[in-house]
Amino acid sequence: MTDHVVIAIPTFRRPKSLARLLDAIAALDTAAHISVLVADNDAVGQAGLALCRSLVPGYRWPLQAVVAHQRGIAQVRNVLVEQALRHRHARFIAMIDDDEWPEPGWIDEFLKAAHHTGADLLQGSILFADVLGHPDIRRPSGPVGMLQGAGNLLIRREAVEAMAAPWFDPQFALSGGEDADFFRRLARCGRRFAWVDEARAHGEVPPGRARLSWVLARAYSTGNSDMRVLLKHRAGAALVIAELCKILAVLLLSPLAAVIFAASPNRRLAPLRKLCRAAGKLTAMFGARYNEYAVIHGE
Staple 277 to which of 48, 193, 206, 219, CB 3.0 to 4.6 Å? Predict the structure, then answer.
């Protein structure tokens, strides 16, 4: 039986990047039945919607575009899941962000691993061009205990069908962390995860994200959202105290490590990122929220 996959793409004011991604999807080397679904989170400009409508007549795959009127990364992902589930014969939903683009064998590598491992959610590697603060997101293929983000995923239909909407929590709308929360809830339901290094996508790093200031702000944001997810799931007092001890240790040791490695281009960034991530976790404990997705990068 030929697998039916809905490729679900959230987009917000990046028509050039979206066009590159849709070109790469049109060039996929696969015998699978593909449908492409785009949700434009810009309810005013709708540049993504306009692009898709212009491509529909000659596009290789069935291409549908909708508008996600409520602003936020969680909200647009929820619209994508809701729309994808309307494809009754689709067995899988692939999620890829509008600043990424897959290699030709992307979908087939995912499907091969899905059938081999039986995993409910699979994540592929994302490769960057050796840009400051942007290491490749990559692991060896095989079962894993947890995934790292929603940018390059394959999800079995039944995994989301068994969940109550909203699948992605709207409280993480502009801060990020909606994917970590989503994975944590699925893990609690006994869903299995796997990594597929061969299902590769490439990620764009716009100039605004290649600066040290953005890299450190990103580390702070990640720490902030990670802690908010942890607190949402009512982690026990022992775990919270353990996290607090780790945070304090990083806050004490990272400045010293930054001084020691200041002359080493390859090592000086790590302690600064750890310091900012720990700071983000600490402020989250006191109720602070950092809205990373309030700013747009790329075109």
Answer: 219
d(CA 137, CA 8): 20
Range of the domain at 235: 209-294
231 plus 284 within the same structural domain = yes
Backbone Cα Rg of the chain: 19
In this model, does residue 159 exceed pLDDT 60? yes
Nearest-10 Cα torsion for 108, 94, 155, 2: -40
pLDDT level of residue 239 (50, 70, 90 thresholds): confident
List the structure tokens of 171: 């409280």
Q: What are phi and psi of 26, to 5 degrees?
A: -65, -25
* Cα gap 243→228, rounded to integer Å: 12
Average pLDDT over residues 136-145: 96
- Residues 176, 234, single domain; the answer is no
**Which residues on adjacent β-strands are paired with residue 11?**
40
Q: Which amino acid is at 288?
A: A
Give the pairing type, strands 152-156 and 92-96.
antiparallel
In angstroms, the CA 86 to CA 70 distance is: 20
CB 294, CB 174: distance < 8 Å: yes
Considering the domain architecture, whether residues 201 and 217 belong to the same structural domain is answered as no
For residue 94 the two structure tokens come to 């692939």
The Cα 67–Cα 81 span in angstroms is 13
pLDDT band (50, 70, 90) for residue 9: very high
